[in-house]
Design brief:
The structure holds two protein chains of two kinds.
Chain A (H helix, E strand, L loop, with lengths): L14 H24 L5 H30 L5 H40 L7 H5 L30 H25 L2 H31 L9 H32 L9 H26 L1
Helix pairs in contact in A: 1-2, 3-7, 3-8, 5-6, 5-8, 6-7, 7-8
Chain B lengths: L20 H4 L4 H29 L10 H36 L7 H20 L27 H28 L12 H32 L13 H18 L2 H15 L6 H14 L15 H13 L1 H15 L8 H24 L1 H7 L3 H31 L5 H27 L14 H30 L36
Helix pairs in contact in B: 2-3, 2-4, 2-16, 3-4, 3-5, 3-14, 4-5, 5-6, 6-7, 6-8, 6-9, 8-11, 8-12, 8-14, 9-11, 11-12, 12-14, 12-15, 14-15, 15-16
The chains are: A mainly alpha, B mainly alpha.
């Protein structure tokens, strides 16, 4: 409930319009790289647009967040403003949850309904008309039309690299919590150590994930084109990996800010937001480990 | 940006900046609300022009004005522009203008992000409209962009369409986060949840729906992007995927989306009917619970759009009954609006005319929705003009009349002038007649078997189509009158008092008209 304070309303800002131009150029560039590339045309101009857009986005992120950090450190924000940021971050994470829900939903749907139906379950016989002899299995190796979607040799088992990655991420969720407690206790050296440890775990995770992808492409012929298993596997783990990268980037910025002396024992929402995000990424991984790798 | 130390509380007292930078750089909720509303009306005219092309082609049987490929682009772009460019931004504009005024907040919770949410929209629609001029033409697969029409058989511009949808999604999610943070955190002291005005309640729930389903839309277009450009097989059965998967994911977004387009109108009408009945709203608490129930049910009814794709009988029955359940809370709302008017001292200024028409005509759209919800009957109606009639009855006299009612209701607060009542009533009656002429015959066309999204038709459908086209031209032309009324009202007219409607309630009527550039720098007390 609102308190009787003056709520900080910022003056005019150039960052939103800079961000719009940056995002627009970036995505227009990406789209035209794809479209021109597919039609075999030159993509030089498209890459240029993309690079300009990405540079503007980077400039905007530093500028906008820098602006917010300066405002926060000069004491313009009230506890009420802090609550706005907390609501904002919580609902942003909820939107990310729903984004992953779409891909998990797709995975469940193809596993529970689409693939068994293609295999003739429930006397539908649809695949018998189109692809005689197709057998529904999961992981689906032999696709209904192997010419369009060549089969992989095998898929990645859960108890090797994925298990290592699970241990890495769960540990990192633990270490970031230790760092948070250190921050609240005012123990800056311990905070730096444990936060740096968290980031190190994240980097190792990303390397293992990258190695796993190379292994899948080179040795197992498991690619995006391997049919629905490859599609769901790479999209789920790939988007998760991108979120790990983003989360690790956030934590790294927090570490830099901590070295610059930012944050106090009771005012450090930037750190907490990054930690929330990190826990979210961890939880998504547990879902992936169970539903993509194990079951 | 170095002048951070200068940006403290006293800037609440200065007015708007001069020139274009006021609009490009603004953090003011009223400026941003105005930009949303102007943008929305521009898109309404653009999407409306496309509707005119469609109706001109359908004026007579046979192909006379456009070729079928272009006709498909028109139906697709008309739908996309009206849904994402006209209706949704109009409600966000109303939210920006009115939420802080209604809850006694100084601005939206995150004002800079608010400006970004707006400016992403022109950017997204620039990309979307530019596809009309690309090789292979604009998207031509209908606003629902079903795979494989949009993946295997879509034009090259589909990739641009996908990124445009991503940008709209980012804009909507940020806008919704802002609305929720504002409502939960910036209410004036004493305004408990169950004292909030209904427009605030409906927007809170709408914002929740937006955050829950816009990411799912982002997910489904991303799967399309991968299928088109990177060889995945989400929607291709020969790789083990399923085109029906597209429909499931799309409609998991799509059904809550249709409530996103109507709930804020429910809220606005719940202000307007009591104001012009000079009675408090009947059943406030039940109105709140009904909106909540509608929002929750909206997540479990999506497959009623897909009865004919071959889902199991148990699924059809579940989605049929769940859909029919929605009629219960909706019925509660209609009952309450009617009960509010019952024995009230009614007067029929333009906002009330649009609100009453909203109640009657939206209910017709709701009933045709119930007919469509009956799975066995839907096998007859599916993909016919009956469906087109149904959703135009909920969107035009529902969402759009709700927006017009809101605009007339709050124009005096925004501009400080009264609009021209005679012209506004003319606008209402011409819209009312035009809209019913345009869409009512579509029910009969659909029941007789005319399919939707088709540029030519059999001769027996000719008469109703001609009536429909005449009504559509009438409705379309009438909207220019609305533009004239608003421009006149902005430039001058009878001075409006702080509370121009004697029966109106709420904090927004305690500030002067026009509302000062900054309001409620110190929150008011709510008893």
């Amino acid at each position: 409930m609102a308190q009787n304070q003056t709520y900080y309303v910022p003056e005019q800002s150039k960052w939103p319009i800079v961000a719009t131009v940056g995002l627009g150029l970036t995505l227009y560039g990406v789209a035209s790289i794809m479209v021109n590339g597919k039609q075999g045309e030159s993509t030089g101009g498209s890459w240029f647009l993309f690079m300009v857009g990405a540079a503007i986005m980077a400039y905007m992120l530093f500028g906008w967040f820098g602006n917010v950090i300066r405002e926060s450190r000069s004491g313009l924000y009230s506890p009420q403003m802090d609550r706005s940021f907390r609501w904002g971050m919580s609902w942003f994470i909820f939107s990310e949850v729903m984004f992953f829900a779409a891909f998990f939903g797709a995975l469940f749907y193809v596993r529970v309904f689409a693939v068994p139906w293609l295999g003739g379950e429930g006397d539908r016989g649809s695949s018998a008309m189109l692809w005689e002899g197709f057998e529904a299995t999961w992981p689906l190796i032999n696709n209904p039309n192997p010419e369009a979607y060549p089969p992989a040799d095998s898929v990645i088992g859960p108890w090797g690299l994925p298990l290592i990655n699970t241990i890495l991420l769960v540990t990192s969720s633990f270490t970031v919590t230790v760092a948070h407690h250190a921050l609240k206790a005012g123990n800056r050296e311990k905070l730096k150590l444990w936060l740096a440890g968290t980031i190190a775990l994240a980097v190792v995770f990303l390397f293992v994930q990258g190695y796993e992808y190379i292994h899948a492409y080179r040795d197992l012929d498991l690619t995006l084109q391997s049919g629905i298993y490859g599609s769901t596997f790479f999209m789920l783990t790939g988007f998760h990996g991108a979120h790990v990268f983003l989360g690790a980037l956030m934590l790294t910025i927090m570490l830099i800010r901590i070295y610059k002396g930012h944050f106090t024992e009771d005012n450090h929402f930037g750190f907490e937001a990054a930690a929330w995000y990190w826990h979210f990424v961890d939880v998504v991984w547990l879902g992936l480990f169970v539903f993509v790798y194990i079951i | 940006m170095s002048a951070v130390a200068d940006t403290h509380a006293q800037e609440h007292h200065h007015g708007p900046a001069k020139g274009i930078s006021r609009w490009l750089l603004t953090t003011n909720h009223k400026d941003i609300g105005t930009m949303y509303l102007v943008f929305s009306f521009a898109m309404f005219l653009l999407g409306g022009t496309m509707a005119m092309v469609i109706r001109a082609e359908l004026f007579q049987p046979g192909l006379q004005i456009v070729n079928p490929e272009f006709f498909n682009q028109m139906t697709t772009m008309h739908g996309l522009i009206m849904v994402f460019g006209a209706v949704m931004p109009a409600f966000v504009g109303l939210a920006n203008w009115m939420l802080p005024l209604m809850i006694g907040a100084p601005d939206m919770a995150l004002p800079r992000m608010n400006n970004w949410s707006f400016w992403l929209l022109p950017c997204a629609f620039l990309i979307l409209v530019s596809t009309l001029f690309m090789e292979g033409g604009a998207p031509n697969f209908g606003w629902t962009f079903y795979a494989p029409l949009s993946t295997t058989y879509g034009p090259p511009s589909t990739t641009f369409f996908i990124f445009a949808v991503h940008i709209m999604g980012i804009s909507s999610i940020m806008g919704a986060i802002n609305v929720i943070a504002t409502i939960l955190n910036l209410r004036a002291p004493g305004m408990t949840l169950m004292k909030m005005p209904l427009f605030v309640w409906t927007w809170l729930i709408t914002a929740f729906l937006l955050i829950a389903v816009m990411p799912v839309l982002a997910g489904v277009v991303t799967m399309m992007l991968m299928d088109i450009n990177f060889g995945t097989s989400f929607f291709d059965a020969s790789g083990g995927g399923d085109p029906v998967l597209f429909q499931h994911v799309f409609w998991f977004f799509g059904h809550p989306e249709v409530y996103i387009m109507i709930l804020p109108a429910f809220g606005a009408v719940s202000h307007i009917i009591p104001a012009f009945s000079r009675k408090p709203l009947f059943g406030y608490a039940s109105m709140v619970y009904a909106v909540g129930a509608i929002a929750l049910l909206s997540f479990v009814v999506w497959a009623h759009h897909m009865f004919t794709v071959g889902i199991p009988i148990a699924g059809q029955l579940f989605f049929m009954y769940a859909t029919m359940l929605i009629a219960v809370p909706t019925g509660v709302k209609v009952f309450n609006w009617v009960a509010t008017m019952f024995r009230g001292a009614l007067s029929f200024e333009a906002p009330m005319l649009f609100a009453v028409a909203f109640v009657i005509l939206f209910t017709i759209g709701g009933f045709s929705g119930l007919m469509l919800a009956i799975a066995p009957a839907d096998f007859q109606y599916h993909d016919t003009y009956f469906v087109v009639a149904h959703f135009h009855y909920v969107l035009v006299p529902g969402a759009i009349f709700g927006i017009f009612a809101s605009a007339y209701f709050w124009l005096p607060k925004w501009t400080g002038h009264m609009y021209d009542e005679t012209l506004a009533k003319t606008h209402f009656w011409l819209s009312f007649v035009g809209m019913n002429l345009a869409f009512f015959p579509m029910h009969f066309l659909g029941l007789a078997g005319m399919p939707r999204r088709i540029p030519d038709y059999a001769l027996q459908f000719a008469d109703f189509n001609m009536v429909s086209s005449v009504g559509a031209f009438m409705f379309g032309a009438t909207q220019l009158l609305f533009l004239l009324i608003v421009v006149k009202c902005v430039r001058g007219g009878k001075k409006a008092s702080a509370k121009p409607w004697d029966g109106a309630e709420g904090l927004e009527w305690t500030v002067p008209s026009p509302a000062p550039y900054h309001t409620f720098a110190t929150p008011p007390e709510v008893k």
